[in-house]
Design goal:
Blueprint (H helix, E strand, L loop, with lengths): L5 H25 L9 E7 L19 E8 L3 H31 L7 H17 L4 H62 L5 H18 L2 E4 L5 E5 L2 E5 L2 E2 L1 E6 L13 E6 L2 E4 L6 H37 L13 E2 L5 H4 L1 E2 L19 H6 L5 H41 L3 H35 L4
Antiparallel strand pairs: 1-2, 3-4, 4-5, 5-6, 7-8, 8-9, 10-11
Helix pairs in contact: 1-10, 2-4, 2-5, 2-6, 2-9, 3-4, 4-5, 4-6, 5-6, 6-9
Length: 462
């Protein structure tokens, strides 16, 4: 369009465009604290000469103004993928480090109330008995120290068992959350596909999609893949969990009962799609994977090591005790008793004070040589020290990995924030720029109104 009235149309296009620019800046500012929000940017394009040439004339205009070509959601797909990967690793490491730190506090080593101190007191009581084999106080002290040692071992075993119960309940909660988030993502995918067909802006839906994809990554290490229609498919351990508007169900296949107890098997997972069920053969990451690894490997290994220490101690003391004689000259019996299935939790003292076999000589001779041997026999202390040192190293390693991964995740998040985050200063400048441009366009319309008034109402008037 050219001619006198074309300037009005050009100014009108500027008003429309800058109004949209101010609306977008206002929307960005309003969502500065909204989780997962990606800032928007208005892209405009010049409206130039007609694309179809006229048959009998040439275009003499200077352009037809501006129009909004699109409202762009500022994000980088590669950075989003990287963020999901790093957040998955961080969630895995954080849950693992938190559980191990909680376990370490329950171990209580080094300290006066730990197993190591109880072992030292137990050994010392046998030395005291060796010096006074007939003393009731010395015999009573041996039993008391033995019961304290058994209690310390049982307390640690209970601590491990409690942590395993916590992890089973945590795992069940995480799996339930996965199913909820997967269903929400499938519903969001359906809304995106429908809105895209209707030509509706899907930026807000895309924000929701990315938040849900990130949450699934944190929970399971799920890999999100954007589709051409703007939807996101997510797979866990190589098995599809969300495909378009269809969501599967992550299920604990073995290892945890419905009531939250153990079923005697390692923890495994499956994903159900209707009547089809696929067992996950690869490792699951994220919070779900951390709980599974703790239940399958870390906690059972420590429990087994603690049980081995209790078994070694009991068997060594029992064997030496059985070779001696008690206060009545009777051959010694087993000093400790325990359940072979769980030695640390079930270790108990099985003799009375008179049955303590301190003597190596029959006939009721007051001799403390057997007590002296029991006080130094066996390698339970060394085995326990190796167990605790190994666990402490594992805890320290987990904490270092969390610190390293936190730095890496922060760097990725900072890069995403620079592109996608709302900067109030930038938005204020953008809004003021649009405001001034709007005012200038309005001024053009005022000038054209004055020009047309002169042309129509005053031309030819003498």
């Amino acid at each position: 369009m050219s001619g006198t009235l074309s300037s009005l149309n050009t100014a009108l296009s500027a008003l429309r465009y800058n109004r949209v620019a101010m609306d977008v800046a206002s929307h960005n500012i309003a969502n500065v604290a909204t989780e997962g929000y990606n800032r928007r940017r208005v892209d405009g394009e010049s409206m130039g000469a007609p694309v179809v040439p006229a048959r009998w004339s040439t275009y003499e205009g200077a352009g037809s103004g501006v129009r909004t070509s699109s409202i762009v959601r500022m994000n980088d797909v590669l950075l989003d993928n990287r963020a999901r990967t790093e957040h998955s690793s961080l969630s895995y490491l954080q849950l693992r480090a938190t559980a191990l730190a909680r376990m370490e506090s329950g171990v209580g080593e080094p300290g006066d109330s730990g197993v190591s101190a109880a072992m030292a007191d137990f050994r010392s009581s046998w030395q005291d008995l060796a010096n006074d084999p007939g003393g009731n106080a010395a015999r009573g002290q041996v039993l008391a120290r033995a019961e304290s040692l058994a209690g310390a071992l049982a307390a640690q075993a209970a601590n491990v068992s409690a942590e395993m119960t916590t992890q089973r309940l945590t795992l069940q909660g995480s799996v339930a959350e996965v199913d909820t988030v997967a269903k929400e993502l499938a519903a969001t995918n359906r809304a995106i596909a429908t809105a895209a067909l209707d030509g509706v802006d899907v930026s807000d839906l895309a924000d929701t999609r990315d938040v849900l994809g990130l949450k699934l990554a944190e929970l399971t290490g799920g890999v999100g893949l954007l589709q051409p229609d703007g939807t996101m498919n997510v797979s866990v351990a190589g098995v599809s969990l969300v495909s378009g508007s269809t969501a599967g169900t992550l299920r604990i296949a073995t290892g945890v009962t419905a009531a939250g107890g153990p079923d005697g098997s390692p923890v495994t997972f499956a994903i159900d799609h209707g009547a089809t069920s696929t067992t996950l053969t690869a490792d699951v990451r994220g919070e779900v994977g951390a709980s599974a690894d703790l239940l399958n490997t870390t906690l059972p290994a420590y429990a087994a090591g603690l049980g081995a220490v209790a078994r070694d101690l009991a068997d060594t003391v029992n064997a030496t005790h059985a070779a001696g004689y008690d206060l009545d000259g009777t051959t010694g019996t087993a000093f400790f008793s325990y359940d072979p299935a769980d030695p640390a939790a079930t270790l108990t003292v099985a003799v009375t004070a008179r049955q303590v076999a301190a003597s190596s000589l029959p006939g009721g001779v007051l001799d403390g040589s057997n007590a002296d041997v029991i006080g130094t026999a066996g390698s339970a202390e060394a085995s326990y020290q190796r167990l605790v040192n190994g666990f402490g190293t594992e805890v320290a390693s987990a904490q270092r990995l969390v610190r390293t991964q936190s730095l890496l995740t922060t760097q990725v998040d900072s890069a995403r924030e620079q592109l996608s985050g709302v900067n109030l200063d930038e938005e204020t400048v953008a809004m003021l720029t649009a405001q001034r441009a709007y005012e200038a366009a309005a001024r053009v319309m005022s000038v054209m109104d004055s020009v047309l008034d002169t042309l129509i109402n005053r031309t030819g008037i003498g």
